[in-house]
Amino acid sequence: MSFSRGDSAQDFVARCFYLWLPVIDGLFLAVYGITGKPGQLIVNLDGLEWIRWMGVACLAISLMWVVASQASMGAAWRMGVDVSTRTALVTSGPFSVSRNPVYLGIRGTMLGQLLVVGPWPVLAIWALSELLVQIQVRFEEEHMVRLHAHSYVEYCSRVRRWL
User: Fold this and answer.
1) Residue 121's Cα: distance from chain center in Å?
2) Rounded Cα–Cα distance for residues 25 and 74 (Å)
3) Are 162 and 100 in contact (CB under 8 A)?
4) Which pTM does this prediction carry?
5) Contact (Cβ atoms closer than 8 angstroms) between residue 100 and residue 161
6) Cβ pair 64, 119 in contact under 8 A
7) 119 exposure class (CB count in 10 Å sphere: 0-12, 13-18, 19+)
8) Tens digit of pLDDT per residue, the chain (163 long)?
9) Would you list the domain boundaries of the chain?
10) Cβ neighbours of residue 46 under 8 Å, at least 6 residues apart?
11) 109, 62 contact by CB (below 8 A)
12) Alpha-carbon separation of residue 111 from 27, 41, 122, 124 (angstroms)
């Protein structure tokens, strides 16, 4: 993990995204799993069980995508911006279709969780996750431009941020 206890916006966002968001999400899911009482649903899903099954599929595919993306990074894998280590620019595998495949997979898992569980707290967690991932990706892309200069800019011209 590459974020410090510093007071910068970058450190704050990284702590929120990598630490506090998973803690909040995990606690909610634990309470939901133990009690079976998710709270008020956003919409009544009675008769729409197929939405939950779409969520399960989204979760499964997204988790496999995250694992494959992290594996394709090899030694270049980091959480957060690590200015002290120079890493290779990975452009193959999932990175040939998305500049941020790990975050794309995280976005998919959060959407899947929303479709499966469905109450308003999950909607709030999903919205917060979306905001934080958008900010974190921009911090990391700025770092990649500084680290890889023209190579990264050229890569960005060929491969979209998400899909």
Assistant:
1) 18
2) 28
3) yes
4) 0.86
5) yes
6) no
7) middle
8) 555 677 888 889 988 998 999 999 999 888 887 877 655 555 555 667 788 889 999 999 999 999 999 999 988 887 778 787 888 899 999 999 999 999 999 999 999 998 888 777 888 999 999 999 999 999 999 999 999 999 999 999 999 999 9
9) 9-158
10) none
11) yes
12) 18, 15, 9, 12
* Residue 42 one-letter amino acid: I
Q: Which pLDDT score is estimated for 67?
A: 95
For residues 49 and 44, give the distance between their C-alpha atoms in angstroms, rounded to a whole number. 10
As given in the structure block, the two tokens for residue 148 are 């890889």
- The phi, psi pair for 64, rounded to 5°, reads -65, -40
Name the phi and psi angles at 87, rounded to 5: -115, 160
In degrees and rounded to multiples of 5, residue 119 shows phi and psi of -80, 170
Q: What is the residue type of 30? A: A
159, 30 Cβ separation under 8 angstroms: no
- 161 to each of 25, 90, 104, 136, how far by Cα in Å? 25, 14, 9, 12
**The tokens 């899909």 sit on which residue?**
163
CA distance linking residue 90 with residue 73, whole number of Å:
6
